[in-house]
Structures are given as structure tokens and as C-alpha cells.
């Protein structure tokens, strides 16, 4: 009898637990989404209706797949192709609408007044959202995703790496790297011209400079570590393109085992490298060379005594990951799109070249002062960042219930800021918003748009991109040296197909034909004549 009672009690307990779990699932997957929809609809905000578990994922994927199924005409009106879901639903629900990524709701915000609130005047109410686990694996637990005090501490330590005074020390070696790349192109250009898939070459170039900023004097060892990280990125991006199964990355599949091994190898190489750097730091003052990420973090780890601000080897490894992820493809994509734009707009290519030849001469290596004088090139790069921003959107999460303009935003709501859409908005940029017109930047970035928050390729506010000086410096240097030596036009089989997988990239590559310009006349003293 006692056993039967015990059995029945157990049964009741299990049923209760199953019931509670079921209830929780229903609350998260059904009741809460309805409540949120209701909350926003009372404020006039609507969107595609929430569907159980999947949200709008199915329609969203369908729209993206359809948009990327064929190339587009040679136009800069790329929003419908790149953020097709945003373009589609904005037409139906207006620019501020709700969209469901599974049971997670996102409110799209493209009004520059509201964007300014989120990033600057009310930024304390918002934080970075939790990235998808696979993205997190790629971007590392560094500056990009850290929050609160730890973020502020790391940002303070790392910032000197990106001071202009520090970056300018990299110019000679970065320029040399570009020249070596172009020498290879010259060798390949038998008949005076060569077709180059620029995205691949620019990636190698960018990786090199990021390695120098991250590892400084330990550049060679750093290169090996970044190679391992690049392999890690390929594995994670492959997984990212498959259906996401929570917890799958802990199962010992072939790919996961490879990824774990790589992780171990990266950590081991970093520990060895850090030990060597620590030993060397006794004989070397940091003023001797550039301030690199690793050096600054090692220095900080030696100083910190409080456990809360301690910098560990893991911290350093995660920051290296963040650097690599945030810096490599963004800058190489900017270079790629600018090369495409210069090829599409030969009159701007000539204007940029004339300026480079005037400032630097036909073969002179651009100095830091020269780079600052290249105004036309700056305007072109800004226009490239506007039309083809490598980061097409960003997300923030409301930390508490908050008022955004006239809207009441409940805690936990994610806000999706479609940078690309803001950059193509006619209300901010005028009727020619989809045209390539670098002249709009002739009076500087602040006066280019009708609203100061209308141009945000590097984000805005205190979490703005730490690497923007480096990205612009490297891009100007690379393009200046290319323009000195080559003219460029699109290969006949180039297909215009901007698309996004983490960053904005050309879906079918960017084949560009480079034609060597005549060598400058050299007089008897071997001096180059302008
Ligand atoms: C054209 C090139 C680049 C573009 C368009 C770009 C864009 C951005 C954007 C939009 C953000 C802000 C994201 C947000 O608010 O959610 C950001 C943050 C960041 N970027 Fe860049 N980036 C570029 C190059 C670089 C480079 C070269 C590095 C480093 C080597 C870098 C490192 C970072 C880091 C660490 C953050 C996080 C900063 C923080 O939260 O404190 N970026 N970037």
C-alpha cells in the first residue's frame, strides 16, 4: 500500500514538473509574443505576425534566398537585395516594425533621432545583444561583445594601439606590403593588364596589417596564430550556414573535434608567445616600437593586482579573436567595394589619381601627411562606406523598460538598426541617395547628411568602432599606391551581387582588370620626374 502511494506521489510530481515545463514553454513561445505584439500594436507598431516557435524566420529566409538568387543591375540601390526582408516589410508596415527571429522580437529603428537616443543620449538604457553562439565563437569574448566594467577596462587598455601617432609608425611597412602585392600583379600582367579577384588579395593585405597591430614585434608568431583563427572562422561559418541545433557544438562531430583542436593550439601558441614577450619586456621599453594589442595587455596584466581587473591569458586570446573578426573582413570589404566603385565611375577614378599624383608623385611612397591631404580619396571612401557599409546592421537590447521617442519599449526588446537603410534613405540624403556622388562629402562628414546620425558606418557613441582610424589609413594608403600604378575597370564577367553573410560582400566575387600605367620618366640622376 505504502509503495503504491509513493508511486502515485512520484507520478504526480513528474506530471507537475512536465506541466510546469510545458507551461513555461507555452509562455515563452506563445503567450509572451502575443503580449508583446499587443503592447506594440497599441502604439501603432505592427509587423509580420508571430508564428509559433519560428517567428518570421521562414518568410525571412525565403525573401533573402529569392533576393540573392540572381545578380542585380549595375545600380547602387542595393537595399532590396541585401536586406530584402527589411525592404519588403517596410513597404507594408512602415519603417518602424516588429520582426520575429524565432521567439526573439526585434524592433527596426531607422529614424536618426531615435538612433541618436539609443547610441548617445540614452545609451545607458541599452546594451549589446547576446550574439548567436556561432557568431560568439567567431568574434570572441573581447571588446565587440564585452559589457560593463570589463569592457571599459579593456577598451582603455587597447585604445592607445589606435592613436594616430601610433598608427603612423605602421605606414612604411603597410605601404611596402601594398607595393609587394602590386609587384606580383605586374609580373602577372604580361600584356600590360591582369584580371584580379580583388577580395582575396585585399583580405591577405588586411590580415597582415591587423597582425602587426595585434602582435607588433611578434608579427611572425602572430601570423601563425591568426592563420589558425582563420581556419576556425571557416569552420564556424560553415556551421553558421547550416540549420542551428542548440548544443550541437558540444557533440564530438568531425568538425567540432577539429575546432576544439584548433582552439587548444591557438591557446598554446598564445601562452608561449606571451611568455616570450614577458621575458623580452625586461630588455625593451614599449616606446621603442609601436604599441600593439598584445604588448599593452601584457603590460596591463603585470600592473593589475585587483582580481576584478585582472587580465588573463584567456582575455588576451579572446581580444585577438575580436580583433581578427572585427578588423579583417570589414576593411578588405571596404577596399573591395571602393575598387568596384572606382571601376564603375572612371571620372572619379581619374580625379582621385590626379590628386594622388599631385600629392605623392607617380611612385612616391605616401607619408602620413600625404595621406591626410588626399581629400578626394577621403570623399570616395566615405561614399563607399555610405553605399556599401561592410556592417549593414547592428543590434541593441533594452536593459530596462525605456521610452524611445514616444514609444514605450519593454525590457529585453532588441532594436535592429539597419545601417544600410539609413545610408540609403532619401529623407536623409536627398533624391540622389542611391547615386554615387562623393561630392556630398566635400564639406566633411558632419555636413554631408541632413542629420548627424545619418552616417554611421562605424557605429555611434561610446561603442563606436575602435579600429576606424586604422581601416581608413590602410584603405587610403592601399588605394593611393594602386592609383599611382594602375587604371582599373570591371572584368566583363563581373556580376553585381552585394549580399550579406556577417559582412557585406560580393556574392560572385569582384574580378577587376588592372592596366599598368606607363612607368614614370626617369632622368639621369634616377630621380622620378613628376
Ligand atoms: C571599414 C572597416 C570597419 C568597419 C566598417 C567597422 C564597423 C564597426 C561598427 C559598425 C562597429 C560598432 C558595432 C556596434 O555598435 O554594434 C564596430 C566596432 C568595433 N570594431 Fe570596427 N569596423 C571596421 C574596422 C575595424 C578594424 C580594422 C578593427 C580592429 C583592428 C575593428 C575593431 C572593432 C572593435 C574591437 C569594435 C568593438 C568596439 C567596442 O564595442 O568597444 N574594426 N566596427
From TrEMBL:
Its predominant location is: membrane
Gene3D superfamilies to which the protein is assigned, alphabetical: Cytochrome P450
GO cellular component assignments: membrane
Entries under InterPro entries matching the protein: Cyt_P450, Cyt_P450_E_grp-I, Cyt_P450_sf, Cytochrome_P450_Monooxygen
Q: Could you tell me which CDD domains the record lists for this protein?
A: CYP734
On whether Metal-binding is a keyword of this UniProt record, the answer is yes
Write out the transmembrane intervals.
6-31
Q: Where in the cell is it found?
A: Membrane
Can you name this protein? Cytochrome P450 734A1 like
List the source organism.
Actinidia chinensis var. chinensis (Chinese soft-hair kiwi)
Amino acid at each position: 500500500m505504502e509503495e503504491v502511494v509513493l508511486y502515485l506521489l512520484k507520478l504526480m510530481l513528474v506530471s507537475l514538473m512536465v506541466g510546469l515545463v510545458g507551461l513555461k514553454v507555452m509562455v515563452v513561445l506563445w503567450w509572451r509574443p502575443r503580449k508583446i505584439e499587443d503592447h506594440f500594436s497599441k502604439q501603432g507598431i505592427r509587423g509580420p505576425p508571430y508564428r509559433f516557435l519560428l517567428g518570421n524566420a521562414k518568410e525571412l529566409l525565403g525573401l533573402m534566398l529569392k533576393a540573392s538568387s540572381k545578380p542585380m543591375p549595375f545600380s547602387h540601390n542595393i537595399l532590396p537585395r541585401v536586406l530584402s526582408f527589411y525592404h519588403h516589410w517596410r513597404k507594408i508596415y512602415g519603417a518602424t516594425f516588429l520582426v520575429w527571429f524565432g521567439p526573439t522580437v526585434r524592433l527596426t529603428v531607422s529614424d536618426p533621432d531615435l538612433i541618436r537616443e539609443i547610441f548617445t543620449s540614452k545609451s545607458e538604457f541599452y546594451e549589446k545583444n547576446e550574439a548567436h553562439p556561432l557568431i560568439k565563437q567567431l568574434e570572441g569574448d573581447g571588446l565587440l561583445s564585452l559589457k560593463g566594467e570589463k569592457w571599459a577596462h579593456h577598451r582603455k587598455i587597447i585604445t592607445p594601439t589606435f592613436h594616430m601617432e601610433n598608427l603612423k609608425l605602421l605606414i612604411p611597412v603597410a605601404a611596402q606590403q601594398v607595393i609587394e602585392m602590386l609587384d606580383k600583379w605586374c609580373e602577372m600582367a604580361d600584356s600590360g593588364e591582369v584580371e584580379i579577384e580583388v577580395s582575396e588579395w585585399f583580405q591577405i593585405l588586411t590580415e597582415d596589417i591587423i597582425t602587426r597591430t595585434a602582435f607588433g614585434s611578434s608579427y611572425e608568431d602572430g601570423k601563425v596564430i591568426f592563420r589558425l583563427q582563420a581556419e576556425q572562422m571557416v569552420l564556424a561559418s560553415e556551421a553558421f550556414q547550416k540549420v542551428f541545433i542548440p548544443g550541437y557544438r558540444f557533440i564530438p562531430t568531425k568538425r567540432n573535434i577539429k575546432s576544439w583542436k584548433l582552439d587548444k593550439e591557438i591557446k598554446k601558441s598564445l601562452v608561449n608567445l606571451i611568455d616570450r614577450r614577458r621575458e623580452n619586456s625586461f630588455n625593451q621599453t614599449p616606446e621603442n616600437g609601436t604599441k600593439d594589442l598584445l604588448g599593452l595587455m601584457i603590460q596591463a596584466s603585470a600592473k593589475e593586482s585587483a582580481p576584478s581587473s585582472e587580465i588573463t591569458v584567456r582575455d588576451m586570446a579572446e581580444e585577438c579573436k575580436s580583433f581578427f573578426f572585427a578588423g579583417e573582413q570589414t576593411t578588405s570589404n571596404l577596399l573591395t567595394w571602393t575598387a568596384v566603385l572606382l571601376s564603375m565611375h572612371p571620372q572619379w577614378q581619374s580625379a582621385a589619381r590626379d590628386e594622388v599624383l599631385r600629392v605623392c608623385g607617380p611612385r612616391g611612397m605616401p607619408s602620413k601627411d600625404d595621406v591626410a591631404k588626399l581629400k578626394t580619396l577621403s570623399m570616395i571612401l566615405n561614399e563607399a562606406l555610405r553605399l556599401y557599409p561592410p556592417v549593414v546592421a547592428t543590434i541593441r537590447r533594452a536593459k530596462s523598460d525605456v521610452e524611445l521617442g514616444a514609444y514605450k519599449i519593454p525590457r529585453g526588446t532588441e532594436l535592429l538598426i539597419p545601417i544600410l537603410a539609413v545610408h540609403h534613405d532619401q529623407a536623409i540624403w536627398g533624391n540622389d541617395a542611391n547615386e554615387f556622388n562623393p561630392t556630398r562629402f566635400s564639406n566633411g562628414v558632419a555636413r554631408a547628411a541632413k542629420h548627424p546620425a545619418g552616417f554611421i558606418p562605424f557605429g555611434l557613441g561610446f561603442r563606436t568602432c575602435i579600429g576606424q582610424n586604422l581601416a581608413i589609413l590602410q584603405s587610403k594608403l592601399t588605394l593611393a599606391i594602386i592609383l599611382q600604378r594602375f587604371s582599373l575597370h570591371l572584368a566583363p564577367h563581373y556580376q553585381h551581387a552585394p549580399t550579406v553573410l556577417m559582412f557585406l560582400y560580393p556574392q560572385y566575387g569582384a574580378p577587376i582588370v588592372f592596366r599598368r600605367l606607363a612607368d614614370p620618366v626617369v632622368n639621369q640622376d634616377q630621380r622620378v620626374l613628376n
